[in-house]
Structures are given as C-alpha cells and as structure tokens.
Write a structure and sequence with these properties.
Layout: H1 3-23, H2 29-39, H3 75-78, H4 86-94, H5 96-99, H6 113-124
C-alpha cells in the first residue's frame, strides 16, 4: 500500500471499527412487539383511551409524560416535565424509578439495550 492510500485507508478502518458494533444493532419492531406482549400488555393497551392498570401506550413519542387522557397518573410523572422521546423512553424502560422517582409504575425495567431499542421501535409505530 502506498503512503497516500494509507492516509485514507487507516482513518476509514478506524471509523469502521467504531461503527461495526452499531451496524448489527438495527431496531427490530417485530421483536419489540413480542417484548411488548411479554413485558407490557398485561398492564397497558395500545388502543387510544383504553386504560388497564396503566395508561395506553399508543402515540407515545412526542407526547408529554403523564398526559394521556382518562388515566390518573402519579404526581411524580405528571410533574416530571418529560416529553417521551426515544432516549427518554429508553431511560424510563431501563429503570422507571430512577428516571421518575415516585412513579407508580411497578415494573422493574429492561436491562438489555437491544430489547429496549426493539420495544421503542415497536411503540414508535403505534399511533
């Protein structure tokens, strides 16, 4: 390899090495649907206005936390000031009580990053 080629090749190799772990982690909404059924469906509906133990989870992304009509949220969640972005939802799903101390959500969280990403991909499709 000539020096000029090395000048271009080595930075590209380094960039590829940094991105490689991310390339295999595309969100999978179908896996997220299964995760929803296993972890969420007992307490949450995807139908607008249909509450169970928890509020409906349709149209979450972009919605202020604690704002779904017809559900009595904890003061902690209502006054959290959060808007559900994929990042905030990910932090909540990882450890609800850490992100919102005083939440009534009794779910312990999802520690696996890929499972959370898949679930968020699925919930992002629910309107």
């Amino acid at each position: 390899m000539r020096p000029a080629q090395r000048h271009i090749f080595l930075p590209l190799l380094a960039l590829t090495a940094c991105l490689a772990p991310q390339l295999g982690r595309a969100e999978d909404a179908a896996q997220g649907a299964r995760q929803f059924e296993q972890s969420c469906a007992m307490c949450h509906s995807l139908l607008p206005g249909k509450t169970k133990f928890g509020p409906p989870l349709n149209a979450m992304i972009g919605r202020p936390a604690g704002s779904s009509p017809g559900y009595s949220y904890s003061d902690a969640l209502r006054s959290s000031g959060l808007t559900w972005t994929p990042d905030k939802l990910g932090a909540f799903l990882e450890d609800p009580r850490k992100l919102v101390p005083g939440t009534r959500m009794s779910f312990g969280g999802i520690s696996d990053v890929e499972q959370r990403a898949n679930l968020i991909a699925f919930l992002s499709q629910q309107h």
